[in-house]
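REQUEST ID: PR-0412
SUBMITTED BY: lab tech R.K.
PRIORITY: routine
TASK: structure prediction, single protein chain
INPUT:
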Amino acid sequence: MAELPSAAVIRIAKANGAERVGSDAVKILIEKTEEYIGQLTKEATKLAIHAGRKTIKEEDIDMAAQKSFK
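STATUS: complete
OUTPUT:
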């Protein structure tokens, strides 16, 4: 079940150049975005634990994102 609101995803897509976004595209954008957030969170959690913390911090997310774009 999708957690992200489709209206927000459509606004983001339009803000990045899309004139129109089909409902099938919104569905897959939501799916892929939620997968990415999940992967990013898992990696950030590993980094926080390695640093001796239970709380994910901004730097954990930044480092995890840098790893995922390489």
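NOTES: The domain at 6-68 is CATH 1.10.20.10 (Histone, subunit A).
REVIEWED BY: pending
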